[in-house]
Design goal:
- The structure is a single chain.
- By secondary structure, the chain is α/β, with parallel strands linked by helices.
- It has one domain: Alpha-Beta Horseshoe (Leucine-rich repeat, LRR (right-handed beta-alpha superhelix)).
- Helices cover 21% and strands 25% of the residues.
- The chain is built from seven helices and eleven strands.
- Strands 1-2-3-4-5-6-7-8-9-10-11 form an eleven-stranded mixed sheet, with no helix packed on it.
- Helix 7 links the parallel strand 10 and strand 11.
- Helix 1 runs parallel beside helix 2 and helix 2 runs parallel beside helix 3.
- The chain is globular, with a radius of gyration of 19 Å.
Amino acid sequence: MNKDQSKSFEVNTDHFSTALSMSTEEEEDGRGDNFMTLYSSEESFLAISSSDQLSTLQLTNTNENDPRLTTKGIITQINHCSSIRELSLSYSFLNDELLKALSGNDTLHLEILRVEAFPEAKSTAKISNETWCTFTNRFPGINLILLTYMTEEEDYEDLLSVHVPFTHLYFSECVPSSAVARVGTSCPRLVELVVSAYGPDTIDEVLIGAAHGCPKLSAVGLGDCEIT
């Protein structure tokens, strides 16, 4: 983007139901003008790198009642950013249709898929094992990262179902212990496990189960967890 141009662009809200604004103002994380952010009028926003080769696409939603971005809209954005290597999105956007579209895009070379799961914006669709298999066959070396903040046990019945191909898993302090216990049977491709808190029992059995069920596991980070 030409730095001589205005740093902000507003979309006419009379013609679009969701207003977007674009900004290249310097971010606190140091990205500066190499990071472009498009904000919707509500909680959803999209952010992409504005370098010569777009490498990162971020789609976030923390409002379950007003997700704004549809699967079709997300696919359209991705099709216009075929050079991206990292896709970051809310778990509420993740479904069979999106993963199949990613798998069927021959020009896409994803290296990282980062998923954030919030209790305020849950997914309403269960992803089939067939879809996950197709996705991992299409991107065999992808780093599939899950950061979860969901607090209810039932939330993990779909999120950590049989053989979910996450490679990096980060549990926040509010995650129920039963969800952490699913790791050994649900994440055979896991490389890194971080558990912020676990209790009231020791986490020994969970770690032993993860060691047996996740043969690629090479890094474990523990917060408020008791071990013997």
